[in-house]
Amino acid sequence: MKFLLYTIINTLSILFARQFISPVVLFLLFYILLYFQCRRENPLQPVFWLFVIWNVLIINSFSNIIYFIAPPDFEYFVAYILSILSTFFLGYEVTLKKRYVSEACISLDFFQTRKAMLLSKVFCIMSIIAVFLNVFDVVFINGLNIFNPFELRNYVNNKTSASIFSQISSILYFGGLISIFLFFLSKKNRMYNFISIFCYMLGSILSAGRQQLFQVFLLFGVFVVINRAYRLKFKLYKTEKIAVLGMFIILILYLGLIANKRNFEADNVDPDFICNFYETSNNIQFCEDYKSFISFLPTAIQGPVVEMTFYFSHQLYAFMERTQNLDYDFIQFKYLRFIPFIERQVDKIYVFGGESQYDRFQKNQNSSSYSGNIISTAWATIINSSLLSFGYIGIYILVFLHGIIAAKIYMWYQNSLNPYLLLANFANILYLLYTIMFNLLAETSFLFFVLFLLFNLYKVDVSKSKCDHSCFQWHK
């Protein structure tokens, strides 16, 4: 239960210390503390990444790098958020057997086989088709300029339906998501995986969004940590290094472009302008020390850093405001809302509850009842969407069961070293990393990744001995 204790201690400590310590110093001190809390932990455990990402959000939100206006019941909301996290930690810890942590290992045998090589080629083809369908939909059907992020984002935010090309494209993109894992786990066909990943990234560019890019960035970080902890001996050939470096340069340049132009039509938007934009549209205030720190960074990354600082610090306050402005039920059974793709398909046959997803979208578009210090389109953590779908009681049941399932998947993999269980564990890690933002099952590509795993995990013998596998042990 140490992850839970660390989280509670970190939260209470930073709320107390911010009364006496300057924001930038406090910000740096708690990141150093977080590093020491994490450095000897097993990164294959999904609970490790839940702890990391929520503590990152807590540090960013409560260190006063950005001054948010706290609601009257601020202490109650902090306690409620901690209780939700505690429920997951409890479900995970009561299920996990300690020997599965200390004796953890990873097998890469399957990922060197012909079947894995064939999968790499199939997913590469899927991703390429997805990009072509996406381009056809954006350019030829809707007549948009793919080099104008402002125009693209306005279209994405205001569209009420998707063409058949767009729908098929969003499904096929899941091949690119799986290719991220195959790129690191397989020593063969990496260029196929790389092309698939690059096509997956283009999906974000074609919508002036960030999610697919952010998933690539997150998973690269996860694998760097796991590679070091398990000594997987991951190495890239010269051409692969050049390709990966080029991809990250494109990623940085693109993030700089959308930071300046996605929300603003003007050219040469400087960081002060972006700070003022977020301050006025959200009723917040960036710390002066932080602004001074930003001025020392290279000009090309100042805008993206300012934008990312806001996007990964506002969620807790956004959730607090939504709770004050929305009426959540004590018990709710609108579970289809939790998986929008399936809800849309069901709406075509029968509308449960008398309100379709399209009707709800139109009502939200026309409603002006929401008012607060954070913009209404801001992320409000997965807790918000869970409350809308399951209510105050249902969310505790859901989170507790998720903790149990997360521990089971991890232990089943350690028993059998089945490759699809390893992918399921990584999928769960990505899902947990997204809990500070929203429900990742709302992303069609991730949903079909999960369905692909469920199909391949059917009838898997989780008690099968792992003696037939060579594996890499965890090194503390």
Plain-language structure description:
By secondary structure, the protein is mainly alpha-helical. It has a domain at 2-87. It is 67% helix and 2% strand. The chain has 21 helices and 4 strands. The chain has a two-stranded antiparallel ribbon with strand order 1-3. Helix 6 runs parallel beside helix 10 (190-205). The radius of gyration is 22 Å and the shape is globular. It starts with a helix and ends with a strand.
As laid out across the biggest beta sheet, the strand order is: 1-3
Helix content: 55-70%
User: What is the C-alpha radius of gyration, as a whole number of Å?
Assistant: 22 Å
Overall SS class = mainly alpha
- Average the pLDDT over all residues and give the rounded result: 84
* Biggest sheet statistics: 2 strands, antiparallel
The helix-strand sequence is HHHEHHEHHHHHHHHEHHHHHHHHE
Judging from the principal axes of the Cα atoms, what is the shape? globular
Total count of strands = 4
Query: Total helix count?
Result: 21
Distance between the termini: 18 Å
Instruction: Outline the low-pLDDT stretches.
Output: none
Bin the strand percentage: under 5%
